[in-house]
Amino acid sequence: MKNRLVMSLGCALLMSLGGAQAQETDPAAKLKVEQVAVGTCANCHGREGHSISPKFPVLAGQHANYLLAQLQAFKGQTRGDPDALGYMWGMAAPLDESLMAGLADYYSHQTPRAGRKGDPALMARGMDIYQHGDSAEGIPPCAVCHGPTAAGTDAYPRLAGQHVQYLMKQLRSFQNNLRNVAVMHGVAQGLKTNDMRAVATYLQSLGPAT
Length: 210
Ligand code: HEC
Ligand code: HEC
Description:
By secondary structure, the protein is an all-alpha fold. It folds into two domains: 28-108, Orthogonal Bundle (Cytochrome Bc1 Complex, Chain D, domain 2); 120-205, Cytochrome c-like domain (Cytochrome Bc1 Complex, Chain D, domain 2, Orthogonal Bundle). The chain has helices spanning 2-25, 27-45, 64-75, 82-92, 97-108, 120-132, 143-146, 164-175, 182-188, 193-205. The termini are far apart. The structure holds heme C (HEC) (2 copies). The site of one heme C has 20 residues, from helix 7, helix 8 and helix 9.
C-alpha cells in the first residue's frame, strides 16, 4: 500500500516535471503563449503586462500560481465581479489548462516597473495600515501575508505598483463578496473608504523590490 502510494506520487512528480519541461522547451507552445499575450491580452493589460489604464490590473511580475488560479476562476466563473464577468469570463473561456499555465508563467517573468507616488499624507497613513494594521478597526497588517515590500509570495499575490483604482475595486468586491474569498473578506470588512484609498495609494507607490 505504502509502496504503491510512493510509486504513484513518483509518477505524478515525473509527469508534472515532464509538463513543465515541455512548456519551457517546446518552441511552438512558447510561440502560442506570446501570440496570445501580444495579440489579445496586451489590448487591455499592456505590453508585457504593464497596463496603462487603471481599470486593468498590471500583470508583470505577478506570481504564476496566483495568475493561474485567477484564470481558472474566470474560466470557472467563480470570480464574479461585474468587470470580471464582463471582461475576463469571455477571455478565459477558450484557454486550455496548458495555455493558462503558459500565460501565467509568461507574466510572472516580466519585470515590474517603478511605483507611482501619490499624496504624501495618504501614503503615510497607507504605510501604517499596511505594515501595522489598525487594531481599533479590526484590520490586520497586510504585510504578514503580502510581505514587507508587497512583493507577495507563491501563496499571496504581489500588490506593489498596482493601480489605485483596481486595488480599491478589489477591496470593495471582497467586502461585498462579489469576489468571494473568505480570508480577504475578513481582512477588508472594516476598511473605510479613506483607509482603502490610503493603503492603495501606498501600494501603487511601491516598486519592484522583492
Ligand atoms: C478587454 C480587456 C481585457 C482583455 C483583452 C484581457 N483582460 Fe484580463 N482583465 C481585464 C479586467 C477588466 C480585469 C479586472 C477584473 C476585475 O476587476 O475583477 C482583468 C483581470 C485579469 C487577471 C486578474 C489579475 C489579478 O491581479 O487578480 C488576470 C490574471 C488576467 N486578467 C489575465 C488576462 C489574460 C491572460 C488575457 C489574455 C488571454 C487577458 N487578461 C485579457 C480585462 C481584460
Ligand atoms: C491572512 C492573509 C492576508 C492578509 C492579512 C491580507 N491579505 Fe490580501 N490577499 C490574501 C489572499 C490569499 C489573496 C488572494 C485571494 C484570491 O485567491 O483571489 C489576497 C488578495 C488581495 C488583493 C487582490 C489582488 C489582485 O491582484 O487582485 C488585494 C487588493 C489585497 N489582497 C489587499 C490586501 C490589503 C490592503 C491587506 C491589508 C489591509 C491585505 N490584503 C491583507 C491574503 C491576505
